[in-house]
Amino acid sequence: MKFHHVGLCCKDIKKHINYIEKIHKVIEKTDIVFDVLQNAYLCMITLEDGTKLELISGKVVENYIKKKIEYYHICYEVENIEKETEQIIRNGAIRLSKIQPAILFCNKRVVFLKTQYGLIELLEK
Fold first, then answer.
1. Helices (DSSP H) in the chain: which residue ranges?
2. Sign of CA dihedral 10, 45, 53, 82
3. For residue 28, which of 14, 53, 58, 104 sits 20 to 30 Å off, Cα-Cα?
């Protein structure tokens, strides 16, 4: 597993981007897209040091936003998503979604798991 990005909840992605750009040098950002399978609006921004932040808004993060929680998940890129998912589940995680394509990542497959240290997303290489 290799670190890929941090997912952040936000009510308004455009406002979040503007705020982040005041603090960091943003070198890349995707269009804001709607992912039907995740029921969320998404945008990926890359900071000058290579850090990637995924901004998520919509129904999927409404409860987080109501509680003023901005951190949503950490994402790891993996070679074999089925193998890594099963290994993490064997060690106590709970699968929260099916393995499915993600529009923000050119339909590469993702899965969400609840672990003892929070929500993680696996992204297949």
1. 13-23, 62-66, 81-90
2. positive
3. 58
The DSSP code sequence of 57-92 is ESGGGHHHHHTT--EEEEEEEES-HHHHHHHHHHTT
CB-CB contact of 12 with 24 (8 Å): no
111 forms beta bridges with: 122
The answer to whether the beta carbons of residues 109 and 99 sit under 8 Å apart is yes
DSSP H helix total and E strand total for the chain: 3, 10
Prediction pTM value = 0.93
Instruction: Give pLDDT tens digits for 79-92.
Output: 999 999 999 999 99
